[in-house]
Amino acid sequence: MSTRVLLHVGTPKTGTSYLQDVLYRNRRTLAAADILYPADRFDAHFLAALDLMRLPWGGLEAEAVGAWDRLADRVRGHHGTAIISHEILATASRSQAGRALESLGHGAGAEVHLVLSVRDLVRQLPAEWQENVKHRQALTYGTFLDQVRDPQRESRIASWFWGVQEIPDILNRWGHDLRPERIHVVTVPPAGDPHQLLWKRFSLVFGLDGLDLDLEAERANPSLGAPETALLRRVNRAANRELNPSDYRPLVRELLAHQTLSRRTRSPRLALPPDVHPWTQEITRSWVADIEERGYDVVGDLHDLMGAPPVTQYADPDHPAEKQVAAAAVDAIKALLLEGARLRQSEERLRQELRDTQVALERSYLRPTYRWREKVVRRLQGGAVGRWLLAGYRRVRGRSSRSA
Fold first, then answer.
1. DSSP 111
2. Which three-class secondary structure string do you get for 78-106?
3. Among the listed residues 95, 40, 100, 97, the one whose alpha carbon sits nearest the alpha carbon of residue 76
């Protein structure tokens, strides 16, 4: 059984994609230090989280069946340190969290630590709306903010947002049976701080200092500007009914959002409306006081949770500058044209390969030996003894087709 388990349960948009990419690509280096990151594919912990919480996710939940138990088995079979990380675990219920902790060896000798990375609401609110848009949603920013601020929290949007973002509640659900010193709250530094500062905080918590890790990210979850997000929302409104989910991810989320629109860094950034700031500050102050009172291990500075002051020039994505949206649309069209040209070239290459294969096959049919074998097979198939001989021949050859 693992002597130490570090369970990182979120929250979204706190450097989690980068962390998981580094851990996945450096599995061998980690293993040499007796640290297990149990994943045979980059999304292994995501599938395990879906399985643990029985979450529907565009059909992936069927692929995820049994994934948590397999992951937990690997952790229990390891005799050093094990790391698990995925941000959607933040929304697990208390009973699901309890099952997860028990399956990882809590109460049976394993030293289980909970890690929660957190970021200020000033950045989390616009980031969460943008993630909704990148997952086919078409609701306006104003509607999103209204639903999140509704005290009843009955909408799907509000329920999900607070499930993965309300820090004290997440710590209650996951950490109610853990000692405070085994609960680690990692704060995301303010925008503009050195890029590696967040990694240093993660490294400290996970015990990665001194390891020669490749820190170059291959996978990331980049952000979009206000006009780019507005454009994507319009694409969703226009195309969702006709574009299958299996096509949406590679074409819209990956090609348009991540690979194209995210590179437009000169656009106005998506921000929190200035009039929403007082509400976020009031909530955050209560969170900070609660964390301080509980005595958790804080890696970073809880003041980071207060966020930046309101922006002086707010760009409303519900009423964007149309010239900026049009410029983003030109880049999007260009990307789609280049992708279409690439696919046409691939199609023509495959068509030529198919033609070459057909010609080669036709030539083989014209060989005298083929015609002689075909005549023999036909004759054998006409009688019981012949069919028995053919069956024996195919068994010896290890073939299952009807041809000789």
1. E
2. CCCEEEEECHHHHHCCHHHHHHHHHHCCC
3. 100
Q: Is residue 148 classed exposed, middle or buried when 0-12, 13-18 and 19+ CB atoms within 10 A define those classes?
A: buried
User: Looking at the predicted structure, is the pLDDT value of residue 58 above 80?
Assistant: no
The secondary structure of 154-207 as a DSSP string is -SHHHHHHHHHH-HHHHHHHHHTTS-GGGEEEEEPPPTTS-THHHHHHHHHHHT
- The tokens 């969702």 sit on which residue? 240
Q: What is the pLDDT of residues 208-225, one digit of tens each?
A: 999 999 998 776 778 999
d(CA 70, CA 278) in angstroms, rounded, equals 45
Q: What angle do CA 151, 155, 156 make, to 5 degrees?
A: 135
Amino acid code (one letter) for 56: P
Task: Please check whether residue 113 is in contact with residue 37, taking contact to mean a CB–CB distance below 8 angstroms.
Answer: no
d(CA 122, CA 144): 14
Residue for token pair 């966020």: 307
Could you read off the pLDDT of 167-206 as tens digits, one per residue? 999 999 999 999 999 999 999 999 888 879 999 999 999 9
The residue ranges of every structural domain in the chain are 4-120+162-220+276-306, 369-397
Report whether pLDDT(276) > 80.
yes
CA atoms of 112 and 255, how far apart (whole Å): 39
* Cα three-residue angle 73-79-85, rounded to 5 degrees: 55
116 with 291: CB under 8 angstroms? no
The CA angle 298-302-304, to the nearest 5 degrees, is: 130
In degrees, to the nearest 5, what angle opens at C-alpha 219 toward C-alphas 214 and 220? 115
**Cβ neighbours for 202, distance < 8 A, ≥ 6 positions apart:** 15, 19, 117, 186, 208
Strand order in the sheet with 4-8: 35-36, 81-85, 4-8, 111-118, 183-187, 297-299
Type of residue found at 362: E
Helices (H) and strands (E) in the chain, counts: 17, 6
